[in-house]
Amino acid sequence: MSGNAPDASSLGQAERDFSQVDKHRLVTALARVLPPTCLLHDLEDLRPYECDGMAALRQLPLVVALPETEAQVVDILKICAEQAVPVVARGAGTGLSGGAQPHRFGLVLSLARFKKILQIDAHARRAVVQPGVRNLAISEAAAPHGLYYAPDPSSQIACTIGGNVAENSGGVHCLKYGLTLHNLLKVRGVTMAGEVVEFGSLALDAPGYDLLPLVTGSEGMLAVVTEVTVRLTPKPQLAQCVLAAFDDVVKAGDAVAAIIAAGIIPAGLEMMDQPATAAVEEFVHAGYPLDAQAILLCEADGTPEEVAEEIARVRALLEASGATEVRVSRDEAERMRFWAGRKAAFPAAGRISPDYYCMDGTIPRKRLGEMLQAIQAMERKYAMRCINVFHAGDGNLHPLILFDANKPGDQHTAEAFGAEILELSVALGGTITGEHGVGIEKINQMCGQFATPEILAFHRVKAAFDPAGLLNPGKAIPTLNRCAEYGRERMGSTRQPAHPELPRF
Amino acid sequence: MNDLIEAWREQVRSAAAAGGCIAIRGGDTKAFYGRPTAGEPLDTRGLRGIVSYEPSELVVTLRAGTPLAELEALLAERGQMLAFEPPRFAPGGTVGGCVTAGLAGPRRAAVGGVRDFVLGLRMIDGRGDLLRFGGEVMKNVAGYDVSRAMAGSLGTLGLIVEVSLKVLPRPPAEASLRFELDEATALHRLNAWGGQPLPISASVWRDGALTLRLAGAVAAVDAALRGLGGERLAAAEADALWAGLRDHTDAFFAGDKPLWRLSVPPDALAVALPGAQLVEWGGAQRWLRSTAPAADIRARTAALGGHATLFRHGERSGDVFHPLPAPIRALQHNLKRAFDPAGVFNPGRLYEGL
Question: Is residue B353 part of a domain?
Answer without folding.
Answer: no
